[in-house]
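Same chain as my last thread, 187 residues:
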Amino acid sequence: MLDMLEDPSVYPVSDDSKLLLKAVAASKGKVLDMCAGSGIIGLNAAKFADEVTLVDINDHALNLIKLNASKNNIKNIKVIKSDLFKEIGEKRFDVIFMNPPYLPGDPSTSDSLDIATLGGKEGSELTERFILEAPSHLEPGGRIFIVLSTKSNLDRIYGAIRRADLSYTVIDSDSFFFEKLILIELH
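reply #2:
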C-alpha cells in the first residue's frame, strides 16, 4: 500500500477502502476511481493501469489526491471535481471503482465528511444513481467494483443493478458488529 497523507476534511482510509483495495490488481487500461476520497484506490490502481481518473466532489479530497500522487511519484492520473459522471463527458473506462457514501442521511445539509459518508435518506440513493449511469461509461467487457454496506437499502441497490441490465458477483465481504461490507463486481 502507498504512503498516504490524511486530511480531517476527507474520508480516511477505512475498512471499506481496504476491502476495495483487494480488487485493485484487476486494473488495466483506463481506470476510474469514483468518490476517490484520499485517492487510495485510484493511486494504487495507477501501478497497473495506463491512466487513472480520480473523481470526487470535495475540494479537500481533490487537493489531497494531488498531494498523495506527488508524495508517491504517480503521474498517470487525472483529477476531476464532479458529482458522479456530470463532468466526465462521454469518456469510457475499462475498470471503474467506487467506495460510495452509504450511510442513511441527508448529505446536502452536512459538512464535507458527512458528504463522504451519507448516501441519501436510505443510504442507497447515490449508489443507485451511480449504477444506472455507469454502464454508459464502461468499455465493452469492462468491470465495475463497488463496496456495499448492510447499513444502506441493499434491495434498492440490487434493483438498480437489474434495471441497468447488469449482473454481479460477490468478491469478498467483511463483517463487523454494526454492519457487513460487501465487495461486488458488476459486469
